């Protein structure tokens, strides 16, 4: 059974940093591209970032303007999202998702990030 | 950038009756490889999204056959043949043709009358 478990969310002040993790199990982690998708309170889904199975290629939403960095550790079956210079508008539930056949086939339960003073 | 527009934004439906959600893209979603990477997701209240349909019309594993997807080019539809109580939630279309960017529709809320 595929499992994706996010962690690392919490309350952070504007301008602060946070590192999210997504622990994966139940599939060959290095064989799949992984993505982060966020959902602001009461709002829709927004793609944040993606990374290839090897980790060699990374992709970001234009709106992030270089503040976030996606990475993965295939030896630990873990996906990361380093978030810097956080703003109030980054407040959201952050989901990790496994990509297969150009669809997001599995999703974690999400971790809440709240940016507030 | 591709814009995905869903209609309606809210759909009250009677149990046992059909429901239909439309998704229109601002550009053709036909990829250079010939595939169309349009999928549909369901998000039940308090739950993460769940894949229902991929590449326009392929039902994902475990998805009931009352869900079906169709369309081509820029116009796509998700249909539920007979709505059940567990279908309540928000439905999103998602395009992955413009790799690596991903765009979601704004969501359609399905509720029971």
Walk me through what this model shows:
The complex is a heterodimer of chains A (117) and B (113). Chain A is mainly β. Helices cover 0% and strands 55% of the residues of chain A. Chain A has strands at residues 3-7, 10-12, 18-25, 33-39, 45-51, 58-60, 68-73, 78-83, 92-100, 103-107, 111-115. In chain A, strand 7 and strand 8 (78-83) form a beta hairpin. By secondary structure, chain B is mainly β. In chain B, 0% of the residues lie in helices and 48% in strands. Chain B is built from no helices and 11 strands. In chain B, strands 2, 4, 5, 6, 9, 10 and 11 form a 7-stranded mixed β-sheet that branches. Chain B has a 4-stranded antiparallel β-sheet with strand order 1-3-8-7, with no helix packed on it. Chain B is globular, with a radius of gyration of 13 Å. The N and C termini of chain B lie far apart (36 Å). The model of chain B has no long low-confidence stretch (mean pLDDT 97). The interface between A and B is medium-sized, with 23 and 26 residues.
H and E order of chain A: EEEEEEEEEEE
Task: Give the structural class of chain A.
Answer: mainly beta
Give the overall shape of chain A: globular
What would you call the structural class of chain B? mainly beta
The gross shape of chain B turns out to be globular
Fraction of residues in helix of chain B: under 10%
**Biggest beta-sheet profile of chain A:** 7 strands, mixed
SS field, number of helical segments of chain A: 0
Summarize the helix and strand pattern of chain B as letters.
Answer: EEEEEEEEEEE
Largest sheet composition of chain B: 7 strands, mixed
How would you name the oligomeric state of the polypeptide chains in this document? heterodimer
Our estimate of the beta-strand percent of chain A is over 45%
Mean pLDDT of chain B: 97
Tell me the greatest interface: A-B, 23 and 26 residues
Low-confidence stretches of chain A: none
Helix content of chain A: under 10%
Uncertain segments of chain B are none
Rg over CA atoms of chain A: 13 Å
Q: Strand percentage of chain B, roughly?
A: over 45%
């Amino acid at each position: 059974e595929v499992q994706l478990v996010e962690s690392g969310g919490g309350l952070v002040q504007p301008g602060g940093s946070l590192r999210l993790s997504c622990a994966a199990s139940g599939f060959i982690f290095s064989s799949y591209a992984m993505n982060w998708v966020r959902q602001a309170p009461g709002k829709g889904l927004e793609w944040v970032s993606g990374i290839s199975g090897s980790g060699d290629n990374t992709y970001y939403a234009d709106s992030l303007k270089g503040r976030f960095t996606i990475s993965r550790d295939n030896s630990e079956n873990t996906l990361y999202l380093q978030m810097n210079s956080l703003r109030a508008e980054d407040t959201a539930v952050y989901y990790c998702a496994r990509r297969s056949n150009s669809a997001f086939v599995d999703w974690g339960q999400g971790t809440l990030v709240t940016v507030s003073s | 950038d591709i814009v995905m527009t869903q209609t309606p934004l809210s759909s009250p439906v009677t149990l046992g009756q059909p429901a239909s959600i439309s998704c229109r893209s601002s550009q053709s979603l036909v990829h250079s490889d010939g595939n169309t990477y349009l999928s549909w997701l369901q998000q039940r209240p308090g739950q993460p999204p769940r894949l229902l349909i991929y590449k326009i019309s392929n039902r994902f594993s475990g998805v009931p056959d009352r869900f079906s997807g169709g369309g081509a080019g820029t116009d796509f539809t998700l249909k539920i043949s007979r709505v059940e109580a567990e279908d309540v939630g928000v439905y999103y279309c998602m395009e992955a043709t413009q790799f690596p960017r991903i765009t979601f529709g704004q969501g359609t809320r399905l509720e029971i009358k």
